[in-house]
Amino acid sequence: MGFIFFSPFGYKSVIVKFLCNNCQNEVDSEDIYIPHPNLQAERNSDSYNENDGYAVCDNCNKEYDIYVHAGFSDGYVEVFGVDDENIYIESLADEDDIELDNYINEHYNAIVNSQFYIYQFENEINNLKKLNDIDLKNSELQEILYRQIYSGAITCLEDYLSTTLIQNITEDDAVFKRFVVNYKPFQDMKFTLNELYDKVDTIHKTVKEELVKIVYHNLHIVRPIYETTLGIKFPDIGDMMKAISTRHDMVHRNGKDKKGIKITLTKEDVSKVIDKVYNFANIVENELEMSQKEF
């Protein structure tokens, strides 16, 4: 079973695209309604509601069950029998244009106006290390703390990747153009010649919406964007995707894996994921410096 994260805020439904694991044909799901979070939940992990959908491969007629989850902080889609890297969000249907525009503008402007974000990232990493050194003298509370720090490390990486990409695209017209030319969802867009001027006039708004809509811990989606837009070699994502999957289980399955087995974290486990996140971002930062020198 594979999964992919998305931002559900302001959207009412989702269409999921993936590769059939039987014949490798592209499959599109039906339009699946995004459920509202459980607003009475006290914890984020308990806030997720689920709605189910389906898809049928047009080539081999294989049927797939699809589940859409939405909570306080994010949403995710599960497709049974399909690998993570073969799942994409095809489209999201707007629920409230005004509310969505306000959300996108606030989120985008906060990222664009963020100064010295690499130092903020390093500061957050150091704070997580300090938290990991705290001994609460209570095994149950210590376990909760470890889970929060582990999740926080992944959030730091997501914030770094989103801020880095958006600021580079915003500040450099050449980078902006490379994103527009190479971003896969844009390549699938079709419009007539008499719509050309309208599309040109709204291109910055469209790019802004797409950049905010990306969930940056979907590394298999982020990697080709970084490589084609920023011209760098993205780090290997294998180990980091395992850490993100563990974080997914802790946040969305209340600390249990897909088989229902409880995930137990140690101080060493948390320390390792903090180092992985720092090293991953450091590789990206070094690649960017070398790329900028070449350009």
Topology of helices and strands:
Elements: E1 2-6, E2 11-19, E3 26-28, E4 32-33, E5 49-56, E6 63-70, E7 75-79, E8 87-94, H1 97-112, H2 117-132, H3 139-171, H4 173-182, H5 184-187, H6 196-201, H7 203-213, H8 219-229, H9 238-252, H10 267-294
Antiparallel strand pairs: 1-7, 2-3, 2-4, 2-8, 5-6, 6-7
Helix pairs in contact: 1-7, 2-3, 2-10, 3-4, 3-9, 3-10
Task: Describe what you observe in this structure.
- The protein is an alpha+beta fold and 295 residues long.
- It has helices at residues 97-112, 117-132, 139-171, 173-182, 184-187, 196-201, 203-213, 219-229, 238-252, 267-294, and strands at 2-6, 11-19, 26-28, 32-33, 49-56, 63-70, 75-79, 87-94.
- The protein is globular.
Supply the key terms.
single chain, 295 residues, alpha+beta, 2 domains, 10 helices, globular
| Helix/strand/pairing category | alpha+beta
Sheet of most strands: 4 strands, antiparallel
Unreliable sequence segments: none
Q: How many domains would you count in the coordinates?
A: 2
Major β-sheet strand ordering: 1-7-6-5
- Specify the number of helices: 10
Mean pLDDT: 87
Radius of gyration: 20 Å
Q: How much helical structure, as a percent, in the residues?
A: 40-55%
The assembly state of the depicted protein chains is single chain
